[in-house]
Amino acid sequence: MSVTVYIPTPFRALTGGQARVEIDAINVSGLLGDLETRYPGMRDRLRDDAGSLHKFINVYVNSDEISDLEGEATSLKGGDDVSIIPAVAGGDIFTPGQIQRYSRHLLLDGVGPSGQRKLMEARVLLIGAGGLGSPAALYLAAAGVGTMGIVDFDTVDFSNLQRQILHFTDDVGKLKVESAAETIHAMNPNIKVEAHNAILDSSNAFELFEKYDYVLNGVDNFPARYLANDAAYLLGKTLIDGGINQFEGQVTVYKPGHGCYRCLFPAPPPPGSVPSCAEAGVLGVLPGIVGSMQALETIKQILGIGEPLIGRLLLFDALSMEFRTLKLRRDKQCPVCGDNPTITELIDYHEFCGAPIPHELAEQRDRVPATH
Amino acid sequence: MSTISISRSDADAVIEHARKGAPDEVCGLVGVRDGRICRLTPARNASPTPRNRFEIDSRDLVQVIRDERDGLDVGFYHSHPASRAYPSATDIHFAALWPGALQLMVSLRNDRGGKGVPELHAYRINGDRVEELRLIVE
Ligand SMILES: [Zn+2]
Q1: What is residue A372's predicted lDDT score, i.e. its pLDDT?
Q2: Complex-level ipTM
Q3: Start-end ranges of CATH 3.40.50.720 in chain A?
Q4: CATH architecture of the region A122-364
Q5: Does domain A2-86 fall into CATH 1.10.8.80?
Q6: pTM for the predicted model, two decimal places
Q7: How many CB atoms are located within 10 Å of the residue A34 CB?
Q8: Given B62, B82, B97, which is nearest A10 (Cβ)?
Q9: Which of B83, B91, B108, B124 should one mutate to test binding to chain A, selecting the residue with the greatest count of A CBs within 10 A?
Q10: Dihedral, A173, A177, A183, A185 alpha carbons, nearest 10
C-alpha cells in the first residue's frame, strides 16, 4: 500500500530536495524504517540513541499526530498522507516573575542573566538552621539559589528567637528544618528546600555533602565543625565557615588545597574546656552579620566573582566595630589536608557542647576557636 | 542586512496576541513570499510551563503543510513577555530543528500593559548564528 510522506524543509537535504516521497508500508513503524534505510542520516534526525522517536519530531497520519493514535503501531492504508514535522519550541531564560524578582541582579555586571542562571541551578547545603544558618538561608533564598539542603535535628525554642530569624514565635516547638522551609518558601516560593532532620555525623555526612555544590557551616559545636571540615575536604567541596562567640565573629572559606580548619586547630580541645552552648551568650545581631557574610561568600563562589575569603580568616569585633584579616596557609603537617594525612575517614567526636565548664578552665575558653 | 516586511495589521495582530497571552508566551506561524510576511496563523502554546516556554501545539503545526502547498516559506513567531525580543539560548537550541526559518519575536518588556512600546524583531537562526533582519512595517 503506497502512502505519501511529506518531508519537512529541514530534512529535504536528505531526500535530494524532494518534498514528498512515496513509500509502501502497513504501519508507521515500517514506513519510518523504510525512510531510514532509503536516506542515510534520516535515522539520526528521527530517533535518539536508544532508538525512540525524538520527542521533538511529530508524525501525523492524515491530520492526527500518532501519539493521539497508536504511536508507531498506527496502521496505514493506501492513499494515506503521512507528514513528519519537527516541533517548533523555545522559551525565555526566565519567567516574567523571575525577571521582576531578580531584576537588580540581572542589571548587575558580574551577575546578569547567566549569573542568575548559575544561582538558580546551584545547590547549597546549610548545616544548622540557627543563628548563622538563618540569615544565610534567607539571603541565599532571596538571591534565588535554587536548591538548599538544611540539616538540623533541633526544634525551635523561645531562646532561639533572639537571633535565629528563620523562626517566628508561632514556630516554637516545630522542627527547625520545617520552620526554615516554611519561612524560605514564604520569601521565595521558587526555592527547593531539602530538609534533613538529622544530626550530622560520620554515618550521613558524606551522603549529605555529596548532593550539594557548596557547604555552608553554621554549626554550634566542635564535633560538627570537625566533621564538616573533614567531610568537605575529603569530598573536594568548598566549605564556607563561620563562627561567633559573644561579641566576636569570624568567617572564612576552605577550598580543598588551600588549607582547612585542622590546619589551624588539628584536634578538638579536651571535653569540659569549652563553655556550654546554652550558657554562652551571644549578641543578637552578630550572627546576622556573620551568616550574611557567609551567604555573600557562597554567592561569590557560585558566580565566580571577586576575591573569595580563601586563605584568609576575617575576624569581626562587634564592640569596636573592627574587621581584621588573618592569612591562613595550608599546613603541610595538617592531619587532613597535609602532605601525609593521618585522617582519611570521618571521626565522631564526643558531643561536649553542653558539658559543664569547671571554673578553673573558664579562662581557657578565650583561646578556643569561636563556635555557635 | 536583508529585509523582511509585514503589514501594519499583521504586526498589530502579533502584538495583540502577545498581550492577550501575557504573562505566558504565545506562538504562531507565519508564511513568507518574496520577502513579505503574507500569512499569520496564531497557534496554541502546548508547553506545560508557558511562563517561559513555548511549543506550537502539534494540532496547529500542520499549518506548515498548507503554507508550503500555497507556495509560502515557513516561519514562526513567539513572544517574550518580560525580556527583549532576541533569541534566548533555548530559542536558539530549538531553532536548530528549523534552520534558517524566519523567526519573528515580540517583546512586551516596555509595553506597560498596552500603554507602552512593544518591540518586534525578525531573525534567521542557523546553528548558533543569529542574523537579525531589517523588519519593515508597512
Ligand atoms: Zn588542613
Answers
A1: 42
A2: 0.93
A3: 122-364
A4: 3-Layer(aba) Sandwich (3.40)
A5: no
A6: 0.78
A7: 16
A8: B97
A9: B83
A10: -140
